[in-house]
Each structure stands twice: as C-alpha cells, then as structure tokens.
Amino acid sequence: MKKKALLTAMAILFCILPLVAGCSLFSQEKGSEKKVVLSTNNEQPGHQTGSTSNTLPVSPPAPDKNAQPQAEPEPEPDHNNSAGPPEAPLDKNNGEKTPEEAEQPPQAPPSPGSNNKNIKTVYLTFDDGPNSHFTEKVLGILDKEQVKASFMVIGTNVLKNSELIKQMVAQGHTVANHTYSHDYQYIYGSPENFMADLEKNREILKSLTGKDTLIFRAPGGPARLTKPYWDKLQEKGYKSISWNITGGDSDPAGVTPEQVYNNVASGLDKVEKAHLTPIVLLHDGSQLSSLEAKPGTATYYYIQSRNSVVTALPDIIHLFKEKGYTFVTVDENTPNAW
Ligand SMILES: [Zn+2]
C-alpha cells in the first residue's frame, strides 16, 4: 500500500514537473514571441537594419514600380536634361505636348544654330519641290541675293529632278525631308506609313547628297502628328521643322505677288512682337507635267501662286535684309516656330 502511495506520489510529481517546466518553457516562448513582436515593431519605424528583409521588399518595390514606367521613356529626360527628370515622364503622358517640350529646351538658350543672341536670323523654307520650272528660278534668286535657304523636298519630285538637289547642296542650301509621297491619305493613315514614307525619302536624299538628314517637315504641318507619330519620330531621332510666317501661297484661289509679300510682311510683324525667330513657309512646288492650264482650274491657280512666289521673293529677301536679318538654314538647333 505504502509502495502504491509512493508510486502515486511519484507519478503525481512526474506529471506536475513537466507541467511546471512546460509552463516555464511556454512563458519563455511567449517571452520570445513578445521579443519578436517588439523587435519587428521597433524595426518598422526604423527601416534601417534588423529584419529588413521583411520590410524593404514591401516598400521599395512600390516606388520602383512607379519609377520604372516613368523611367522607360528615358529618352525623354535625356532630351530635357535639366528639365527635372521626375516631371518629364509625367509630361510625356500628356501626348503631343511632349515633343514640343522636347524641342523647347534648345529654344531656351536663344542662340539657334551658329548665331549669337544679338544676331537676328531668318529661315526661308520652300516646300514640295523640286520641280523643273520654279525651283531653278528660286535658286537663281537666292544665288543672286547671296542668301541661303532650306528646301523641304518630296521624294517623288526628288527622283524627277535629282540634279536640282545637287545644285541646292552645291549652292550651300539645306535639303530636308518632306516625305516620299506627300500623300496625306497614306502617310496619315498610320504612324507606320508615315515613318516608312519618311525613311524612303531619307534614303533617296542620302544617296544623292551623301548626307543623312533627320530634319523633316510634316506635310500639312506638325499639328497633324499625334503622340504615336511623335514616339516613332523621337525613337529615330527626327527633328521637326514648323513655320511661323507663311506667304499664303497654297491658297487654292491663287495669290498675287503683292499678296505673298504682304502675307510675309504682316507675319513678320507678329513674329517680331512675339520675339520669335522667323521661319518663313513658301512653296517652290511639286513637279508639273505642263505649265499650261485652263483658267479657273486648280492647276491654273497653283501655277499662278508659284509664279507669284518667284516674283515676290527678291522683295521678301530685301525686307529681311533691311531689317538686319541673317539668312540661315534649318538644322538640329532650329528653334520652335511657336
Ligand atoms: Zn507640302
């Protein structure tokens, strides 16, 4: 019986001891748990050391993920340089504004091309040529007046008048890309079409002049180009040239030489008041199969307007000369028209 009592007592002890020990262990675990909890609580505000693996992976990816889509258009901040990289990608999302802004920085230091601030410069630009009749006359006047101009040429016309392109280069003028076809329906059908047409003319001009140019003017003006177009143009490094003065010589009703001159003169007044560098748009025009046209037809007025440009050109050049302008040609530093 005593043995049984002893055994029972021992059995009770064996049962109690582990429980007591278990409690202490449990309390230690609790303690350690508390420490863990405390330690994580303490680390969270710090974010410096300790259990950084729990905290850092959570927070950094967030800013990283935000930054990456903004960083993807890296060419944008690169173009803007000091424009503030964090803001530039946001600007890019606004679409058409981006390329304009990308062009603006060169405008900020108002020393376009090789000119000083104090030198007034003007860009004479002739679109849609070359053609076998008017372009040569324009070149003759420019040579006589000893001024340089820029020709925004169409590929199909270039192929028909390649000798005129060589003459332009020989006389020190600049030849720039005005697409191969100038076919609005095709080139504005998609950014891919536009780029293919532009690249086609680029290759033709390169083979003729030996110079690869990325300077272009969009037919109808840059306003027709939406963001997908600008994205592709920027990808290739193209530089858009617009205008801020026009002779109005693409008026389908035709223009007289006086009208062309007056349009340029009044345009110059506005541009000077706005403190802009004048970029004048005139047309030497597309290749024509004949210079004879029935009065009243579109071709008739087209020819009349081309003649008017040729007639008005010396006076237009004199206007700028008298106002102290130097004639320069388009390049990658040509400022924004507006
Ligand atoms: Zn054009």
From TrEMBL:
Nucleotide-binding among keywords: no
Organism name: Desulfocucumis palustris
Domain NodB homology per the UniProt entry, residue ranges: 120-328
Positions with biased composition (Polar residues): 38-57
GO annotation, biological process: carbohydrate metabolic process
PANTHER family for the chain: GLYCOSYL TRANSFERASE-RELATED, POLYSACCHARIDE DEACETYLASE YHEN-RELATED
One example GO MF annotation: hydrolase activity, acting on carbon-nitrogen (but not peptide) bonds
Keywords linked to the UniProt accession: Signal
Family matches, as InterPro entries: Glyco_hydro/deAcase_b/a-brl (IPR011330), NODB_dom (IPR002509), Polysacc_deacetylase_ArnD (IPR050248)
Ranges of compositional bias, category Basic and acidic residues: 89-100
Protein known as: Peptidoglycan N-acetylglucosamine deacetylase
CDD domains: CE4_SmPgdA_like
